[in-house]
Amino acid sequence: MATTTLATSPAQAKPERLRITEIFHSIQGEADAIGWRTVFVRLTGCPLRCVWCDTEYSFYGGNWHAIDDILAEVAAHGARHVCVTGGEPLSQKRCLILLRRLCDAGYEVSLETSGALDVSQVDPRVRKVMDLKAPDSGEAKRNLWSNLDHLLPHDQIKIVIASRADYEWARDAVAEHVLEQRCMVLFSPVHGSVKPRDLAEWIIEDKLPVRFQMQLHKLLWDDAAGH
User: Fold this and answer.
1) 14-to-17, 44, 65, 79, 218 alpha-carbon distances in Å
2) Is the pTM of this model over 0.70?
3) In angstroms, rounded to a whole number, what is the distance separating the alpha carbons of residues 55 and 70?
4) Measured CA angle at 146 (ends 125, 137), to 5 deg
């Protein structure tokens, strides 16, 4: 007797989901979209444990959301810019689907990523803001240097600096890999570890081809929790 296999219709298929820590509407405080009204989609989970991390609350927990529902909530805020962040967003494979769907919907999309996971499959329309981890982060060994080959001119490299030693490491990395010819390079001080003025003066003294930045959201709201 022949058996019949029933195909699953699209209506019966399980929706694609992501574990989300929070979705919120604020002002972008970093990178080249600084100052724009932005919807932040913070995914849960991160394989790194940087010493200075200000979003440890996103490592665990969160709630599952269908990607269609995420897009609906983003749309409700009426902002043109969307930032997908974490944690480490790319630790969830379906993040790539979310990024593509956001781009298809016409948003200006940025991705904040640690630089430890492969970025080669990220939609090229997305502006990647990719960290390089300096030694004082405790995670410098996790830098995936091959990611540099997948950066586009609209992307950005961010190096968070907690000491003079971190600065010298970052300065040497810029020179060794000619980072400024790949994309914009951002140097950012760790709050309470490096005085912003000191970092600015080091950059000036060494005539570095990098952009100094501070986190605007922390200046506006004095928010140590991350947003």
Assistant:
1) 9, 20, 12, 29, 40
2) yes
3) 20
4) 95
Q: In whole angstroms, what is the distance from residue 81 CA to residue 25 CA? A: 10
Model pLDDT for residues 15-71, shown as the tens digit of each residue: 899 999 999 999 998 889 989 999 999 999 999 999 999 889 999 999 999 999 999
Domain ranges for the chain: 17-221
Which of left, alpha, beta for 31 (phi over 0: left; psi -120 to 50: alpha)?
Answer: left
Question: Torsion angle of alpha carbons 204, 148, 159, 203, nearest 10°?
Answer: 0
List, for residues 167-179, the tens digit of each pLDDT value: 999 999 999 999 9
Return the CATH superfamily for domain 17-221: Aldolase class I (3.20.20.70)
How long is the chain? Answer: 227
Nearest Cα to Cα of residue 65 among 74, 77, 55 = 74
